[in-house]
Write a structure and sequence with these properties.
alpha/beta; Dihydrodipicolinate Reductase, domain 2; about 35% helix
């Protein structure tokens, strides 16, 4: 593939560029916030042909990325966290005319853990207290992480949408309520990402944990997502796809 990579100069952009080179793909480094001499082109000025867009920048770049992808009729992978509700509406609108892939976490292992967590919630039921703990490097700007929010939303759905997020606990009157899912954030050191989902019962505890050892994991996932969404585009399919769709491809032998 040839990939137009927005956010190519960031930590994840550099990881994607390295992983793409190892896999034999071509990356066109780009940045919505283009400034001369940075080693990237403006996404709007790129004249070279490419198969798909990968965005590893920031929510502020979303409208430019969507305008580019829709205008050029190119599939895109959105790998940014911290989108607003208006951003989500814009993504949904764009997916009516192009194939889009969106995920707060592009790890196959993490998304498999999400599936297992949903299964556990459904089997264990109301008698267990679910909690989510996420750990990231000290420079991560948003909390809870996009992945923790994704885990929360999936678990809340497993409980019929009846559970509310309790983001941390502080004070003298914080006894747990039955309709909570606790979400706790740690920011320290250089951790690439650790996510734990626990189910605490009266007589036992089940925990599921995923450790990201380095950013290469997410870069490889982004390339898998780009290949998947390019295949959807080539087949004439439109819409918004997620890692769940990619996992289904793997479980059905197409991945």
């Amino acid at each position: 593939m040839t990939i137009l990579l927005n956010g190519a100069l960031g930590r994840m952009g550099l990881a994607v560029t390295e992983a793409a080179a190892q896999a034999g793909h071509t990356v066109i480094p780009a940045d919505v916030r283009f400034r001369p001499g940075q080693g990237a082109v403006s996404v709007h000025d790129c004249q070279d042909p490419y198969d798909a867009v990968i965005d590893f920048s920031a929510p502020a770049s979303l409208n430019d990325v969507l305008r580019l992808a829709v205008g050029k009729q190119k599939p895109a992978v959105l790998a940014v966290t911290g989108y607003s509700r208006q951003d989500e509406r814009s993504i949904g609108k764009a997916s009516e005319s192009i194939a889009l892939f969106k995920s707060a976490n592009l790890s196959l292992g993490l998304n498999l853990m999400l599936r297992l967590a949903v299964l556990a919630a459904k089997i264990l039921g109301e008698g267990y207290d679910p909690e989510i703990v996420e750990t990231h490097h000290r420079y991560k700007a948003d909390a809870p992480s996009g992945t923790a929010r994704m885990l929360y939303e999936a678990l809340s759905g497993a409980y019929g949408g009846s559970r509310v997020m309790q983001a941390g606990r502080r004070g003298a009157a914080v006894a747990r309520k039955d309709n909570e899912i606790g979400v706790h954030s740690i920011r320290a050191g250089s951790a690439a990402g650790v996510h734990e989902v626990g189910f605490w019962g009266i007589n036992e505890t089940l925990t599921l944990t995923h450790h990201a050892h380095n950013r290469s994991l997410f870069a490889e996932g982004a390339l898998k997502a780009a290949a998947f969404i390019t295949a959807m585009h080539t087949a004439g399919k439109r819409g918004l796809y997620t890692m769940d769709d990619l996992l289904t491809d793997y479980t059905e032998g197409r991945g």
